[in-house]
Specification:
Elements: H1 2-14, H2 32-41, H3 43-53, H4 57-70, H5 75-87, H6 91-104, H7 109-121, H8 125-137, H9 143-155, E1 171-173, E2 182-184, E3 198-202, E4 206-211, E5 221-226, E6 229-235, E7 241-247, E8 258-261, E9 266-271, H10 304-309, H11 315-326, H12 334-346, H13 349-361, H14 371-374
Antiparallel strand pairs: 1-2, 3-4, 4-9, 5-6, 6-7, 8-9
Helix pairs in contact: 1-3, 3-4, 4-5, 5-6, 5-7, 6-7, 7-8, 7-9, 8-9, 11-13
């Protein structure tokens, strides 16, 4: 009864058809006795739907995750959790759930649709179209699919009803590299150890590795944890051995780490030794990635008047360099240089700055000792009479 009331509330509030939430296949949607049985069997799923309607997405995420723990071979459970992840902005987690749903049921158009929507939000319109075309081929005239496909085609500069694609309708998206790579699923073949894909994602406290192997028995899987390494071994149903040995990017707490063998994957949870540490990759590499740190901005103690007089050129430094040059043997007309040295050496700091600034800025045509005038503006070139100043380039 409660399950039925939830669905009626959804229909009334959002104007959706009775099959909007797609009841688990264990009972027909219109059979009230079946609804009661379904509500009892899928209690966590039902509570997740109710919380989703109430827009309590954190609570809905918890309930849908509990439902998956109880029944990890239900494609629709993953689709609903993907919806919540999308609402929360967890795009990588959303892609992983849609991929799990597609692996369980390739004909689940809602999984393809959700995958297309999140890829559009990530700006991956070419890949989104492959997912949306797959959704369209697995349903008939669904308004949501049609609208999403039209928007995607518009973003790609194609006609709104275009159904062409370069990727197969049944496709595989790697959530950790969705912005870089999309691979195409070939015809079903028995998985081999070196061809099995694994994904990873992280939070502040842990790193999760998902090894996508179906229908393994817990007794056929062994996982060993070390401070900087994790090793996963499994016996496949084909008789082949699977081994994954990873030297981790950061350190973990082996005593707190754990794993689960689910119907669609092996889930390995690594607890970070340092919470809040960001792993830029799963595996450790020889390249050291520097961590940028913010530094405090030093305050300038100069007054507004002094700041106006301060120019880009460091005149004090120029003065010191020039003084060191004067100590060397004079070049050219020694008498003139000696006289200039004597005048400059007996002058105070302001006079020295004025002499240097006027001489350099005027290209050697002006020599002033008045810093109060020279310091306020640029000294212009004043060539001798009957001469014209031109830049070298001209």
């Amino acid at each position: 009864k409660r399950f039925h009331l939830v669905l009626k509330r959804v229909c009334r509030t959002h104007g959706k058809p009775i099959d909007f939430f797609h009841l688990p296949p264990s009972s027909p949607p219109c059979d009230l006795s079946g609804l009661a049985m379904s509500a009892a069997k899928h209690a966590s799923y039902v509570e997740g739907l109710e919380l989703f309607v109430d827009e309590d997405y954190a609570g809905a995420l918890k309930r849908f995750s509990q439902a998956i723990d109880e029944e990890d071979n239900n494609s629709e459970y993953y689709v609903k959790r993907a919806c919540v992840q999308h609402k929360l902005g967890n795009h990588t987690d959303c892609l992983m759930d849609t991929q799990s749903a597609i692996q369980l049921d390739p004909s689940n158009f809602r999984a393809h649709l959700r995958q297309g929507l999140v890829l559009m939000d990530m700006g991956e319109h070419a890949k989104a179209k492959a997912a949306l075309v797959a959704a369209a081929k697995n349903c008939e005239n669904n308004a949501h699919v049609g609208k999403a496909l039209a928007l995607c085609n518009k973003a790609l500069g194609l006609p709104e009803d275009d159904m062409g694609q370069t990727e197969a309708a049944v496709h595989t998206v790697d959530p950790t590299t969705a912005s870089n790579t999309t691979t195409t699923a070939a015809a079903p073949t028995p998985p081999q150890g070196d061809r099995i894909r694994h994904d990873w994602y992280q939070s502040d406290a842990q790193v999760v590795i998902d090894i996508l192997i179906k229908k393994l028995k817990p007794e056929d899987v062994t996982v060993e944890f070390a401070a900087k390494n994790v090793t996963v071994s499994a016996k496949l149903h084909t008789g082949a051995d699977y081994n994954l040995d990873v030297d981790l990017f950061g350190e973990i707490d082996p005593a707190q780490c754990k794993y689960r063998v689910l119907g669609t994957k092996i889930e390995v949870k690594l607890v970070k030794k340092t919470k809040g540490e960001n792993w830029v990759s799963l595996e450790r590499t020889e390249v050291v990635v520097p961590v940028a740190k913010l530094t405090a901005v030093e305050e300038v103690s100069e007054s507004a008047a002094q700041a106006k007089l301060k120019s880009a050129k460091d005149w004090d430094r120029t003065v010191k360099e020039f003084e060191s040059e004067l100590k060397e043997d004079p070049q050219g007309e020694a008498a003139l240089a000696a006289l200039f040295q004597q005048i400059y050496g007996d002058a105070n700091d302001d006079t020295k700055r004025a002499m240097m600034k006027s001489y350099i800025e005027s290209n050697g045509t002006v020599l002033s000792t008045d810093w109060s005038k020279v310091g306020k503006e640029e000294v212009k070139t004043e060539p001798p009479d009957s001469m014209e100043f031109r830049k070298w380039e001209k």
